[in-house]
Specification:
Layout lengths: L3 H15 L8 H12 L22 H9 L19 H9 L3 H5 L25 E2 L8 E2 L6 E2 L3 E2 L2 H16 L44 E14 L3 E13 L4 E10 L3 H13 L2 E3 L12 E5 L2 E7 L6 E2 L2 H10 L4 E7 L3 H14 L3 H8 L3 E3 L9 E4 L20 H5 L19 H9 L6 H12 L22 H17 L1
Parallel strand pairs: 11-12
Antiparallel strand pairs: 1-4, 2-3, 5-6, 6-7, 7-8, 9-10, 10-12, 13-14
Length: 497
């Protein structure tokens, strides 16, 4: 500055500029903000504090700082970050989803966030203001030739904005990304547990010959695990082992243990499904609902005892056996597993048992005897289920003295199961139990009498029927063979329609 007038005008300008600012800053902050302004004044022209009439030359530079700190300072808001200075979205996603190669080998990248396009469906220029911006929502110019004119910023047409919102909603709906963890799965398609693929259905196999198709087939995953093999060149190599079973629910079933490349689960599951379709076998079923007889089967250290059950019992067994029964079409069965519960051994043992069972006619032809069935649900009433095909039946004299005719010994191959004994009534031995026996004494022989009546007079005696049978003949036990035949005919007619 060249004169005292310039210094005075500078002070006036500072006072005018600072009088509009807030006084919320501390004295230290005010001093720091005033430092750049003080650097414009040399030490020989000190600043006079407000209200002072002293000559400028009588103050030192230290007095200039002290006088200035009493003035209200200006705070100009500045932004150190700008939209144009920041990096792109890739750097942010890398910070959230980034993991080293060693971390990936140890499985640390399994649950990290995946990169998402959060702007999917959005377009530049469309917003809540509903303004039409040339170059974004409309063309910059309109018309042609001499009539060309520049479009101006005008309110956006309501129809155009509503169509944009519909497209945005459709894009969000069709996006591959979803919130809240895993995608919703129907309870019937979740398998044995919601978090793992075991027990889930993977559809029918794909036929190599396009002229054929696997109609009514479906596949169930029984086992999916990762196995390792140590090699000299590649070190420890990982692969997947997939146990898949497929069937149509009408006797045709097949299974396979298929290898799959590690990390390519979808391709491995698809190949396992197709391989299971190439290994189909047919299983005979009694009345299209259960096995022909009780049997024992084993594979390795796994032992399985299987028992035939009456209609309506259901399948009570290991979950792998349940899945196989569903694919075969078995609806009534009881199976007890002992020993090792290895999934592959259970599958192989049960499939061997199904293939080794013999039909009633085969057993009758082997023994040259009538095959008689007595079941508890029928009051152990004897029922002939098969006879020799040639009609030749051996007599008692022709049967050897040491020949085994016990059906359980034949079907279980000498491995008779020790079934759990019946529970004793805890009331036995008490005074109330004696009272019960005296009260029910007249009915104690009803079961024996019913059985004797059915043997001597036929199946209509002692059967489960109404006392009004002569008036209402339909009140009798169901003939299951008749009902199953009617059901098949009804299903066949529906398929033809």
């Amino acid at each position: 500055f060249t004169s005292t007038r310039d210094a005075t005008s500078l002070l006036t300008m500072l006072r005018l500029g600072l009088s509009r600012m807030t006084n919320t800053l501390t004295p230290v902050q005010r001093l720091c903000q005033a430092m750049p302004k003080l650097s414009l004044l040399p030490s020989k022209y000190p600043v006079v504090s407000p209200g002072s009439q002293a000559h400028l030359s009588s103050y030192s530079s230290s007095n200039i700082l002290l006088a200035t700190t009493n003035l209200p300072s200006s705070s100009v808001p500045t932004r150190t970050m700008s939209y144009y200075k920041t990096g792109g979205a890739d750097s942010l996603w890398n910070s959230m989803a980034g993991v080293s190669q060693q971390g990936k080998k140890r499985g640390r990248a399994r649950n990290l966030m995946k990169k998402k396009d959060l702007n999917r469906g959005q377009k530049m220029g469309f917003g809540k203001a509903k303004m039409s911006w040339p170059g974004l929502t409309t063309k910059i110019t309109s018309g042609a030739g001499v009539d060309t004119k520049v479009n101006e910023i005008v309110p956006l047409d309501e129809k155009t904005y509503s169509s944009y919102l519909e497209e945005l909603e459709e894009a969000k709906k069709n996006t591959k990304y979803f919130r809240g963890g895993k995608r919703y799965t129907d309870p019937l398609d979740r398998g044995w547990t919601g978090g793992k693929p075991l027990g889930r259905k993977f559809g029918a196999p794909e036929a190599t010959n396009k002229d054929y198709s696997f109609d009514n087939f479906d596949s169930v995953l029984l086992e999916f695990k990762t196995v390792f093999k140590m090699t000299g060149n590649l070190g420890r190599v990982r692969r997947n082992s997939i146990l898949m079973v497929t069937g149509n629910g009408q006797g045709a079933v097949g299974y396979t243990v298929s290898p799959g490349k590690y990390g390519k689960n979808a391709a491995g599951l698809r190949n396992a499904t197709n391989k299971a379709g190439l290994r189909l076998v047919y299983v005979d079923r009694y009345e299209d609902r259960t096995v022909y007889h009780d049997f024992f089967t084993q594979f390795g250290k796994t032992r399985i005892y299987v028992r035939q059950q009456p209609p309506g019992h259901g399948v009570v067994a290991h979950r792998a056996i349940k899945a196989i029964c569903e694919r075969v079409g078995i609806k009534d069965l009881y199976a007890k597993c002992e020993g090792s519960l290895n999934m592959q051994h259970i599958t192989k043992a049960f499939m061997l048992g199904l293939l080794r069972q013999k039909t009633h006619q085969v057993l009758a032809d082997e023994k040259k005897l009538h095959l008689v069935e007595m079941r508890s649900e029928n009051d152990y009433f004897p029922k002939v289920v098969a006879s020799p095909s040639d009609g030749v039946v051996r007599t008692a004299a022709e049967i050897g003295h040491n020949e085994i005719l016990d059906f359980e010994m034949i079907s279980f191959e000498g491995n008779l199961p020790e079934w759990r004994p019946a529970q004793k009534n805890p009331m036995e031995g008490t005074p109330n139990w004696d009272k019960h026996l005296r009260k029910k004494w007249a009915y104690r022989s009803h079961d024996d009498v019913r059985l004797r009546m059915r043997v001597e007079n036929g199946t209509e005696w002692g059967a489960v029927r109404s006392h009004l049978y002569p008036k209402y003949p339909e009140c009798v036990e169901r003939d299951w063979k008749k009902y199953i035949k009617m059901s098949k005919e009804r299903k066949g007619s529906q398929e033809e329609d």
